[in-house]
Amino acid sequence: MFYTVGEIAKKLNIPPSTLRYYDKEGLLPFVARTSGGIRMFSDRDFESLSVIECLKKTGMSIKDIKTFMDWCALGDSTIPDRLAMFRRQRDQVLSQIAQLQETLEILDYKEWYYETAQKAGTCQIHETLSPEDIPKRCRLIQQKLHPCPQEASKNS
């Protein structure tokens, strides 16, 4: 089965202009065209486009994605290069996940902080709380944010 730019874009949940850009950048040498020059995508093309979108979401540059696509076209001799590239991207994604987890923990702490302040009607409530009054997960973040306990309530 074949799909137009609009149809495949819809399946990938991306704008058709993104596919046209990818084609212009040389990422889609595999795409067939009708006699009128209209791009037609197959089910197999969908898999390649899904990988391109995955790599883009990891922050990989178009230039590096093009290198990957070129390696694919060269065949099995580039398997070690492709494997190394995916390992690097995986490591980058794991690093991004760790950074996002830390960001989420800070957001959770600040949410607790302001919920507590809202219930009390003032942020000064945090100056009166004992460590036992603070949820353990929040205490850990508070310690990261404010290594000096006296600064904890003043700077939040």
How much of the sequence lies in strands comes to 5-15%
Our measurement of the CA-to-CA distance between the termini, rounded to an integer number of angstroms, reads 58 Å
CATH architectural type of the largest domain = Orthogonal Bundle
Q: Which strands sit side by side, in order, in the main sheet?
A: 1-3-2
How many structural domains in the coordinates? Answer: 2
Count the E strands.
3
Compute the gyration radius: what is it?
25 Å
Q: Could you please say which CATH topology of the largest domain applies here? A: Multidrug-efflux Transporter Regulator, Chain: A, Domain 2
Q: Please tally the helical runs, counting DSSP H or I stretches of 4 or more residues.
A: 8
Average per-residue pLDDT, rounded, comes to: 91
Order of helices and strands: EHHEEHHHHHH
Q: Runs with pLDDT <50, length 5+? A: none
What kind of sheet is the major sheet?
A: 3 strands, antiparallel
CATH class of the largest domain: Mainly Alpha
Query: Which structural category do the helix and sheet elements fall into?
Result: mainly alpha
What characteristic shape results from the CA principal axes?
elongated
Describe this structure in words.
The protein is built from eight helices and three strands. It is elongated. Strands 1-3-2 form a three-stranded antiparallel β-sheet. The chain folds into two domains: 73 residues, Multidrug-efflux Transporter Regulator, Chain: A, Domain 2, CATH 1.10.1660.10; 64 residues, no CATH class. It starts with a strand and ends with a helix. It is mainly α and 156 residues long. 67% of the residues lie in helices and 5% in strands. Helix 5 packs across helix 7. The mean pLDDT is 91.
